[in-house]
Amino acid sequence: MNQRLSVSEQHLYAKLTWPEVREAVALGKVIILPIGSTEQHGHHLPIDVDNFLCTNFALEAGRRAPDKILVAPTIPYGFNVHAFDFPGTMHVPRNPFVDYVVDVCKSFSYHGFKRIILFDGHGSNMPPLNLAARRVALETDALCACLIWTSLLTVDPEHMKTWRESRIPGGCAHACELETSAYLHFGADKVQMEKAEDNIAWYNYPENSRFGGVDLLTGGGVLKVVEWTSTYTPQGVVGQATLGTAEKGRIVVEEATLRLLQFVEAFQDWPDPQRRDHHTTPPTSPLPAD
């Protein structure tokens, strides 16, 4: 990579010139595209939590492996109409959201980047982002992975025991012990811990969670009932925010970054997909619409 860029900038897509983009393609760098949301996170956290966290996790990985990773500019708005009873929340409808993400990824693929990670910071983005990733794989010759950063903390099922104190399920769900701790690590000056409150949503109590229960780290049970956010939290918290600490955030960041780097290294080496049409007679009709 051109030495015009410092080591601390070589993982930043937006800082490259077009010849440097060409060099990055030749190196086979993996694109990490952070995708978040602008939404309420209780009284103690800013509305940029989802954007701030997924971006900073991606940047941390990029700083550690600038020869392998390019972190693209963050997409800051997501699928979020269910939280509109809380001021500040922004929403993009499903189809425009999916189309936008797919077109961004098609642009990366066109320029030669064939390994793309949709790196999510907002739980409700996952269904449309899974669809987007499938479309990218079907409509380009790139491989596109989709994950939410919290899933990296479940690779080692024992790791959660090293930091988590909140109840299971429901202690880590939204503006909770986990998100508060991660934000305290990356940006403690923006967290108003004196305003932090706990709230266990009604569906996470034992008498109600036989089939459900929502938790960022232990899954969502066998079914999910989606409601307006304001029906199960008075202040926007779903979990135990008061248990958040910067030290827990440090532990979480180290684990998530390690697992992301491991995935990037493996993803780079995945074989390029090769379609095999098993029809005896070649199809004469177009593929069905997505």
Blueprint (SSEs and pairs):
Elements lengths: L17 H9 L3 E6 L13 H16 L4 E3 L22 H17 L4 E6 L5 H14 L3 E6 L23 E3 L2 H11 L10 E2 L38 E3 L5 H23 L22
Parallel strand pairs: 1-2, 1-3, 3-4
Antiparallel strand pairs: 5-7, 6-7
Summarize the structure.
This protein is 31% helix and 10% strand. The chain is α/β, with parallel strands linked by helices. The protein has one domain: Creatininase (Rossmann fold, 3-Layer(aba) Sandwich).
How would you sum up this structure, described in words?
It is a single chain. This protein has 290 residues and is α/β, with parallel strands linked by helices. It has a single domain, classed as Rossmann fold (3-Layer(aba) Sandwich), CATH 3.40.50. It is 31% helix and 10% strand. The chain is built from six helices and seven strands; from the N terminus they run H-E-H-E-H-E-H-E-E-H-E-E-H. The protein has helices at residues 18-26, 49-64, 94-110, 126-139, 177-187, 246-268, and strands spanning 30-35, 69-71, 115-120, 143-148, 172-174, 198-199, 238-240. The strands form two sheets. A four-stranded parallel sheet has the order 2-1-3-4. A three-stranded antiparallel sheet has the order 5-7-6, covered by helices on one side. Strand 3 (115-120), helix 4 and strand 4 (143-148) form a beta-alpha-beta unit. Helix 2 (49-64) packs across helix 5 (177-187), helix 2 (49-64) crosses helix 6 and helix 3 (94-110) packs parallel to helix 4. The longest helix has 23 residues, at 246-268. The chain is globular, with a radius of gyration of 20 Å. The mean pLDDT is 94.
